[in-house]
Amino acid sequence: MNAMIKNAWCSIAAVAAALLLQSAPLLPQTRTASGGWVEARGARVHVPDGWSYNQRLAAASGPINLTNFGGAYARGGLLPPDGAEIEVTSLPAPPNIVEYIKTELKSAKVDRLQEMAAGERSGIQASYVESISAGASLKTVVSYIVHGPILYKFYLSYWSGSRNEQGLAAAFEQVIKEAQLR
After folding, report:
1. What does the alpha-carbon distance between residue 90 and residue 104 come to, in Å, rounded to a whole number?
2. Which residues contact 151 (CB under 8 A, 6 or more apart)?
3. Are 88 and 41 in contact (CB under 8 A)?
4. What is the CA radius of gyration of the chain?
């Protein structure tokens, strides 16, 4: 009888340990590759100096996710102070890009849609600000670029009023300019 109870407790302990390990938050799977390239979803982009990319997302054919803080998000998955992220994704191009953008950003308070150009690339850009809490808001800039049958979306998100806003905008423009799209 003691052997059966011991085996039962060992099995329970093994299952509990497995569940604990599965529920533990995973460390960010980032790879610092400043000056390197990352490819996913039909886009190949240059990783700006001081930025890193989420290797796990790229390997799973997810969006390309670049951060200037090593992927170590603040509590609740928020960007840390002075943190920024660039995300690149793609989908089949919709028949009417402007209507698609208006639908996608319907709940956001978009400043305006405007034509954008980064090197030889052109498209439509939108920006909006989300209030997170009193005195804290997140700014997002989205560039929509149609290339053949594919719509590529480039997102830049950072805290409004960031002291490095111009540097972030320059890194974002450079990522778009140098992107290799299929």
Report:
1. 14
2. 90, 91, 92, 93, 94, 97, 100, 144, 145
3. yes
4. 21
Q: Yes or no: say if 137 and 129 are a contact pair by the CB < 8 Å rule.
A: yes
- Nearest to residue 64, comparing CAs of 101, 82, 84, 37? 37
CA neighbours within 13 Å on the CB side: how many for 84? 27
DSSP H or E segment with residue 22:
helix 2-23
Are the C-beta atoms of residues 29 and 23 closer than 8 Å to each other?
Answer: no
Closest Cα to residue 33, out of 68, 62, 83?
Answer: 68
| CA-closest candidate to residue 144, choices 106, 76, 111, 96 | 96
Say how many C-beta atoms besides its own lie within 10 A of residue 89's C-beta.
Answer: 17
The pair of structure tokens assigned to 110 is 């978009």
CB 35 within 8 A of CB 47: yes
Does this model's pTM top 0.85? My answer is no
- Per-residue pLDDT 10s for the chain (182 aa) are 444 454 444 444 333 333 333 333 344 455 656 678 999 999 999 999 999 999 998 889 889 999 999 888 888 888 998 999 999 999 999 999 999 999 999 989 897 899 999 888 899 999 999 998 888 899 999 999 999 999 999 999 999 999 999 999 999 999 999 999 98
